[in-house]
Fold this protein.
Amino acid sequence: MRGQSAVKKQLFLNRDVSFHEARTVRHSDRLPHGGSMELRHIRYFAAVAEEGSISAASTRVRIAQSALSARIATLERELGTKLFARHGRGTTLTPAGRLFHKHAQRILSEVDAARHAVRTIMGASSGEVVLGLPSTIAMLLTVPIIELVRERLPGVDLRIVDGMNGDILAWLAEGRLDVAVIYLTGKRGDGRTIPLVDDDLYLIGRETPLTRGRKHIAFADLASLPLVHTSVAHAGRILLDRVARRAGIALTYASEVDSLAQLKTLVLRGHGHTVLPMIALGDARSDPRIRAVRIVEPSLQLRCSLAFTARRKASRAARDAAALVPVVVERLLRQRRWHGGRRAGAGT
């Protein structure tokens, strides 16, 4: 109990800031009362606590691992206690760390709410925004995006349209959508996209001798299976055909269906295998008839990104609504609900 009281006390009673720190730290990242504990250090701590490793957290907050380790060490010295136990698999919170994490979450939530409240009284966004979502992730994203927009942007009339990825790209190019979440076959954007998630691709279908008891399957083995997939207008099919051509492998498409629901139905009925991100399975992920095996040699990924239409300048309402999409995506990743995906650029 004495250790917990010390942590609580240290949250608010901090030493003075050195002159160098006062010059180099932004005022928006400084906690009140002139203490030396910085808001960004609390964000860094929360990232390590939620990711379970310095490596993953450094990718999330976009600073070097050595710098992140130094910030955490500074925070531990200031609090006078260890916040993490280090081990070969990463980090775990100590009892003091768990207590501090509870307070840190509250602090960060209050700061975000305060910033939002100030921005709201300075002039709220209003108007219609049409957001496109691929069917692959629409079931996961639609409700939390609508709820967050209603909470933070009550003046925005958000309309969500879902469809196959190729259709979403076409509608975005035509200007029928203001903004969209799209899948790209490469990791290099055109400067107008915001990367969100890298999704591994899985071979999905009834269990066969080729997939029984396996977690991975070589791309070359796909040549021996009948595939049901989308037409060549969609990112997953484009990537499959490109990799097959480079490897000199002939893939057999038993059926082409531009409907995610129908693809899953065909697979469930045993009409072949398909290749999709794990997230596309939705509730079917727990169906005992289905086996999902990650493709390797080479491993295949699609990058999920946010993009605006190039047909017109994005309205303030569109920009503000779009800014909430990464917030929702980040929450889903932290909650481990985006199965088979990881933050864009985070590696395997």
User: Anything to note?
Assistant: The radius of gyration is 23 Å. Residues 1-35 have pLDDT under 50 and may be disordered. The CA atoms of residues 27 and 38 lie 9 Å apart. The chain has eleven helices and 13 strands.
